[in-house]
Amino acid sequence: MKVRIIVGQYAYACIEHESGAKTDIRLEPGKSAPASLREYAAEQTKHAERLAKMAEIALRAAAYLESN
Predict the structure, then answer these.
(1) 49 membership: H or E segment, kind and range
(2) Nearest Cα to Cα of residue 28 among 41, 16, 37, 15
(3) How many domains does the chain fold into?
(4) Domain containing 12: what range?
(5) Per-residue pLDDT reduced to its tens digit, 1-48
């Protein structure tokens, strides 16, 4: 993994994965890059948990419809 911090109008962490894929994450002003990346990760984890709950509800609703 390679991580570069690019600063212009906004700051970004430019991450190159072992697979060669690249991800850019905008960093929050006034925070260190590691703190900003941790906050981003926490927000994304919460979002993923909400999506997983919605997916589970959709699957249960589909099963309900098929059984009735």
Answers:
(1) helix 33-67
(2) 37
(3) 1
(4) 2-67
(5) 999 999 999 999 999 999 999 999 999 999 999 999 999 999 999 999
Tell me the CB-side half-sphere exposure of residue 67, using CA atoms within 13 A.
6
Q: Pairing mode, if any, of strands 11-16 and 2-7? A: antiparallel
Order across the sheet with 11-16: list the strands: 2-7, 11-16, 22-26
Q: What is the pLDDT of residue 53?
A: 98
d(CA 35, CA 56): 32
Q: Is 17 helix (H, G, I), strand (E, B) or coil?
A: coil
Geometric angle at alpha carbon 1, from 27 and 49, rounded to 5°: 60
Give a three-class secondary structure readout of 24-42.
Answer: EEECCCCCCHHHHHHHHHH
**What is the C-alpha to C-alpha distance for residues 60 and 41, in angstroms, rounded to an integer?**
28
